[in-house]
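Quick review question:
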């Protein structure tokens, strides 16, 4: 969440930032009103408590038993405090809720825009793959080669699930091995995190507001949420903890199965395995000092591009506009790979700088001379299953076979997938 003092001192800037991300700017005014009442109540409670403490000391110092008048005064103070404390608890709850509803403000260089149609392409690498035959999409290739089975997955689990089989499984784990090799070579610490986290920990990440909970699988009986990415459990791991400044930046790479309801995407990308309810993903998370987070963001994007160039898959880097940022992100870039079977670029990677928005909610700090501060938190994709689609479609051959990218062959154990 945002720094309350910042909102008090910059209400118009916060209104504009919230509106640019599609949030209701009146949230700011509601919070300011609640904040004023909360601070007034805190002052009143503190004043009454001080009066009660003085009164108690007077009673204890008295040489005779207190009169009924004094006892009545003590009961009156106690009742006033009780009433005000109950009111303060209600107002503080609303204060907290409204504060969490205000999104992270976009960084100043984020382009203004209402949705994904106004995102900005900042650079491209490679030229779209062309063939002297009509290219197939990944589902046709996968079904012909016995690699993808969405029909039986639909029978067993419902829509937006898929079985990956045979060489495609080897190819996926090759991607993950390659991603681990690159990131651990850069000093990232590998982690296999829990895929279920407490609901209050999920709430601390900032994805639940404005309908976000509708996209999550929630186990109400156990108060647990299935993570949408390893970022969720990697970040929450350090809730209520303080890093030593010398340890920053602290970088992790986590592998997890991910779960998303894909709420709001009804009828969108239903073909194949592009948008599933369950998929695997390797994810980077970095904890940094505030002054280093913009540089760290650039570094994470460079790693993502390095991976895509090694696969020799054409891509473009897209900067998200304000309306497509998401609640906790101050800045975000996507990498979109060229997918010839669909004749378009599709997102395979994202990389976000959430600054101190999540660390304030989860109370994650670092200690340096002069006191402690909130860390900045960033996340970025290494590989999910979407690059499998890009590999199948870009490396397909006229006979329906698929060449394995050279960088992955030592893990797959072959040069080509053939029917």
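Suggested answer, residue by residue:
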């Amino acid at each position: 969440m945002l720094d309350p003092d910042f909102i008090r001192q910059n209400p118009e800037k916060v209104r504009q930032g919230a509106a640019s991300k599609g949030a209701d700017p009146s949230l700011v005014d509601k919070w300011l009103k609640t904040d004023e009442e909360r601070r007034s109540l805190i002052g009143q409670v503190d004043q009454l408590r001080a009066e009660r403490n003085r009164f108690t000391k007077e009673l204890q110092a008295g040489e005779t038993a207190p009169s009924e008048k004094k006892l009545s005064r003590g009961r009156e103070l106690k009742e006033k405090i009780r009433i005000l404390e109950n009111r303060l608890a209600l107002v503080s709850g609303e204060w907290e809720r409204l504060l969490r509803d205000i999104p992270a403000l976009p960084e100043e260089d984020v382009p203004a825009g209402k949705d994904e149609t106004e995102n900005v392409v900042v650079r491209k690498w490679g030229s779209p793959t062309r063939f002297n035959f009509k290219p197939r999409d990944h589902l046709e290739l996968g079904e012909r080669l016995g690699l993808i089975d969405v029909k039986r997955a639909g029978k067993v689990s419902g829509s937006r699930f898929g079985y990956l089989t045979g060489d495609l499984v080897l190819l996926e784990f090759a991607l993950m091995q390659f991603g681990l090799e690159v990131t651990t070579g850069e000093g990232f610490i590998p982690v296999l995190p829990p895929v279920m986290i407490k609901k209050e920990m999920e709430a601390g990440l900032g994805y639940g507001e404005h309908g976000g909970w509708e996209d999550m699988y929630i186990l109400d009986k156990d108060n647990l949420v299935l993570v949408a990415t390893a970022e969720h459990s990697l970040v929450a791991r350090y809730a209520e903890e303080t890093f030593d400044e010398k340890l920053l930046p602290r970088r992790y790479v986590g592998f997890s199965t991910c779960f998303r309801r894909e709420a709001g995407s009804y009828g969108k990308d239903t073909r194949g395995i592009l948008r599933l309810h369950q998929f695997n993903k390797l994810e980077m998370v970095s904890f940094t000092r505030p002054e280093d987070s913009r540089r760290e963001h650039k570094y994470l994007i460079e790693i993502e591009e390095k991976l895509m160039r090694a696969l020799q898959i054409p891509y473009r880097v897209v900067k998200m506009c304000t309306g497509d940022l998401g609640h906790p992100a101050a800045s975000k870039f996507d990498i979109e790979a060229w997918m010839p079977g669909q004749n378009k670029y599709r997102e395979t990677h994202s990389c976000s700088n959430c600054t101190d928005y999540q660390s304030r909610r989860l109370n994650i700090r670092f200690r340096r001379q002069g006191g402690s501060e909130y860390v900045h938190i960033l996340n970025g994709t290494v590989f999910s299953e979407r690059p499998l689609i890009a590999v199948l479609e870009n490396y397909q051959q006229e006979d329906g076979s698929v060449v394995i990218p050279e960088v992955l062959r030592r893990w797959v154990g072959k040069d080509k997938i053939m029917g």
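Why it works: The mean pLDDT is 94. The longest helix spans residues 26-61.
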